[in-house]
Amino acid sequence: MQRRQLLAAALPMALAAHGVRASEPYPNRPVRVIVPYAAGGGPDVLLRQFMPRVRDTLGQSLVAENKVGAAGVLAAQYVAQQAADGYTLLMGSNTHLIQKLLQPAINVDPVADFAPICNMAASPTVMVVRADGPYRSVQDVIAAAKASPGDFNYGSGGIGTSAHLAAATLVSLAGFKATHIPLRGSVEITASLLRGDVHFAFPVAGTGVPQVKGGKLRMLAVTSSRRLPEFPDVPTLQEVLGNELAVQESWFGFWAPAKTSAEVMTTLHRAIASALKDPQVAAQFGASGNSVITSASPEAFAAFVRSENGKWADIIKLAGVTAS
């Protein structure tokens, strides 16, 4: 009898304690960000520079985990299967849209399976060659490729990546032949160029610009709508080719699994957007050819993602890129 009385007295206390835990404000532990890029690559470095600023505004640390493979698909599949509790996010990008457009059968949908939180940065790709090589302009590469049809190639971090599509767009619009060499990741582009395995490439600025500044690579063009302030003499690819579809920028942002609550989404957006206002963040991003892009709200970012989906479909059609 005494034991029953003790249990009866303890039950309300246990329920009350459970209620306190259940109502603890979000977040109450670190938030994982799954990065679909290799450690040391441009987007990975960008995120790791930014994470401490979010900690200051979110009250919890962001923890980056690299999950590389299938041009971002493996990371997306993993995050889509996680609980929609705000503790596992994806570094989502236009690459995920591209992969779904190229491979409709893959079992993850970047539009339907995720809740976009906030954009973070945008970066063009940059056309680069070896710094000690003979090519000093895009026209030099085009002329050499046309003079040796079938002998030219270009490297990228994989089929359907921004580097692949930018190069395929150049090949298509300029009317020459070149073989695509998919590498195991964007961090291999520089080494491949220096070895002479490929003739040119279009890494994102975050990966390519540091190598240009370091004297290893030469920049011939940029796929942004305007020239980069740090490289005013380097033309845009649109200037060279005269086609709007030559304007191609990669962007990176934070996505949560679909059905994440509005309250969690608002908390994350507020913290990320606040951190992006830091002048030091803009300076860090700009040093590697990136610009800060802040979505006004999760809804605004979702609308942007849908718009980008249509744009990249047009680019894929122009370039004739397929998944095989």
Describe it.
The protein is α/β, with parallel strands linked by helices. The protein has two domains: 29-123 and 250-319, D-Maltodextrin-Binding Protein, domain 2; 126-246, D-Maltodextrin-Binding Protein, domain 2. It contains twelve helices and eleven strands. α6 crosses α12 (298-319). The longest helix is centred in the last third of the chain and has 22 residues, at 298-319. Mean pLDDT is 91; it is low at 15-21.
Features:
single chain; 324 residues; alpha/beta; D-Maltodextrin-Binding Protein, domain 2; six-stranded mixed β-sheet; three-stranded parallel β-sheet; 45% helix; globular
What's the gist of this structure?
It contains twelve helices and eleven strands. By secondary structure, the protein is an alpha/beta fold.
